Amino acid sequence: MKTRSPEDLKFILSKDKTVGEVSTWIDELFKGSRKITNEIPTEIIDWATQIILDSYSKAVNKEKTMCLYKILHTHEVVQAAQNILQKSQNEIPNEATAYVCAFLHDIGRFPQALTGTLSDTDSKVDHGDLGAHLVAAQWPEKAEIIEAVKWHNKLFYPYNSIYAKFTRDADKLAILEYAQNMFSFFDMGPGLVSTEVLERFLDGKVVTHAHLKNRTDAYVNMLSWLFDINLEATREICISEGVFVDMLDQIKLADPESGALVENSKFLTF
User: Fold this and answer.
1) Within the chain, which residues score under 70 in pLDDT?
2) Contacts (Cβ under 8 Å, ≥6 apart) of 198
3) CA proximity to 164, closest of 236, 98, 94
4) What is the CB-side half-sphere exposure of residue 221 using CA atoms within 13 A?
5) In 3D, which of 179, 162, 185, 187 has the Cα closest to residue 238?
6) Please, what are the domains in the chain?
7) In this structure, is the dihedral angle defined by the CA atoms of residues 137, 139, 143 and 145, taken in order, positive or negative?
8) pTM, two decimal places
9) N or C: which end of the chain has fewer CB within 10 A?
10) Residue 185: its pLDDT value, please?
11) With the C-alpha atoms ordered 61, 171, 112, 42, is the resulting torsion angle positive or negative?
12) What pLDDT does 223 receive?
C-alpha cells in the first residue's frame, strides 16, 4: 500500500487554514508543481475549485477536514487514472474525457460534507447523483462525464460507457493503494470478519458498505472489488502492485480462520 506524504497530512490536520491557503493547495495539486496531466481544462478545474472552496468556507470542524481529504483523494484518483491510461493501450478513446471524469468523480462529496458525514446512507445524499447533477447543470452536453460521475459509486454499473467503467476502476485503484490512510481517516476498529460479509465474498458477490462492522470487514469489502474491476489494465496494476495481496494479508492477520476461507475461495483469481 502507498502512504500519503507527511506534508499533505500535516496540511490537512493543521488548524486555521484560510480559504486562500486551500485554494493555493488545490492550484498546486492540479495546475502547479504537482499537476499530473495537462488534459484537464483550466475552466473545469476552476469551476470545481469554486464548489470546493464554497463548501470549505461553510464547513466547521471535521467537515473542513473531510473536504481536505477529498481534495487529496481526487488527486490520487487522477494519478490512478494516468496509470490505467498508460497501461490500457488505447482502450480509452479520449484521454482528456477520462481525466475529467476522474477529476470530477467526487465533486458531490464537497456539498455532502456539510451534512457532517460522508456516508451516503447517513446523509441521505447520494454523492454520485449530486455530483452528476452539478456537472449537468453546468455542462448538460457532457453526457459521458455526467454518466461516469453518477455511476462511479454505485454497487453495480449496468451499462456500457467505457468512461463510467474507467472512472469506477480509477476510484477503486486509488482507494486500494491508500487503504491504510483511508482507515485512519474513518477510524474503523479491529475485529473478526462478520458472517454476512464472509458469506457474500464466498458467493462471489461484492461486499457493500452497509455490511461493514469493523476494519477487517472493510478489507474483505475492498478485496471483493476484484469482482468488479472493468479493465484488464486495472487488474494488471492491482496484481503488479500487490494491493489484493495486501488486503488478503490483513484479513489473515486479523482473522486467520476466515482469512483461510477467503484465500481458498474459487473466486479469488490473482
Assistant:
1) 183-187
2) 220, 258, 261, 262
3) 98
4) 17
5) 179
6) 1-178 (1.10.3210), 188-270 (no CATH)
7) negative
8) 0.96
9) C
10) 55
11) positive
12) 97
